[in-house]
Amino acid sequence: GAISIPAALLNSKGETVALDASPGMLEGLRLKAISAGISLTTLLADVHQLPYPDHSFDRCYIGFALFYFHDPNQVLREVFRVLRPGGRLHLSTWQESVGMVGRALSRLLGARCQAAQPSMRYRYASINKCRKLLIQNNFCLVRSEKITLNQRYLDPESWWRGLWSHGARSDLET
């Protein structure tokens, strides 16, 4: 999803593949890539069973999505399998306080959003929890870094469109 275009910009040597289980997310990404003049391949697939042979990729990115997968351990085993020896996984997740966006979603969606947050979005909010999960799934040399992201929107409509372009979409659709 959202991390695919920056990954493609960094990838000057090979192909960038964006994989998602949502046709709508892939189509939106494809259109953004075309309008930005960026080359990437989109693939509709289940990340629990990656359709690639062993050692196919130098890098894999999981951007703010690990908490959505029904079996994160299986996903990480699959990513480990398709990474070449010495390959890297780049994983991002939310910390427990998501600031304005989290508060706005909670107000907008009420109890439904409040009930979903502890069980899904924040189940890997702890750096130590992520590190443990990665090590359990054969990753080594795990390095973690806390990055604070401050997003600014031109207007409320831009913010609303942004919510529909990533994982928060699942909260809005339920």
Poorly predicted regions: 113-119
How big is the Rg? Answer: 16 Å
Mean pLDDT: 81
* Shape, principal axes of CA atoms: globular
Q: Beta fraction of the residues?
A: 5-15%
Number of helices: 8
Sheet of most strands: 2 strands, parallel
Structural class: alpha/beta
Number of strands: 4
Strand order of the largest sheet: 1-2
N- and C-termini, Cα separation? 20 Å
Give the oligomer, counting copies of the same chain as homo and different chains as hetero: single chain
Helix content: 40-55%
Provide an overview of this structure:
The protein has 174 residues and is α/β, with parallel strands linked by helices. 43% of the residues lie in helices and 14% in strands. The strands form 2 sheets. A two-stranded parallel ribbon has the order 1-2. Helix 4 packs across helix 5 (111-119). The chain is globular, with a radius of gyration of 16 Å.
Describe the structure concisely.
By secondary structure, the protein is α/β, with parallel strands linked by helices. It contains 8 helices and 4 strands; from the N terminus they run H-E-H-E-E-H-E-H-H-H-H-H. It is globular.
Attribute tags:
about 170 residues, alpha/beta, two-stranded parallel ribbon, two-stranded parallel sheet, 4 strands, about 45% helix
What layout of secondary structure does this protein have?
Blueprint: H1 4-10, E1 17-20, H2 23-36, E2 41-44, E3 57-63, H3 72-82, E4 83-92, H4 99-109, H5 111-119, H6 127-136, H7 156-163, H8 169-173
Parallel strand pairs: 1-2, 3-4
Helix pairs in contact: 4-5
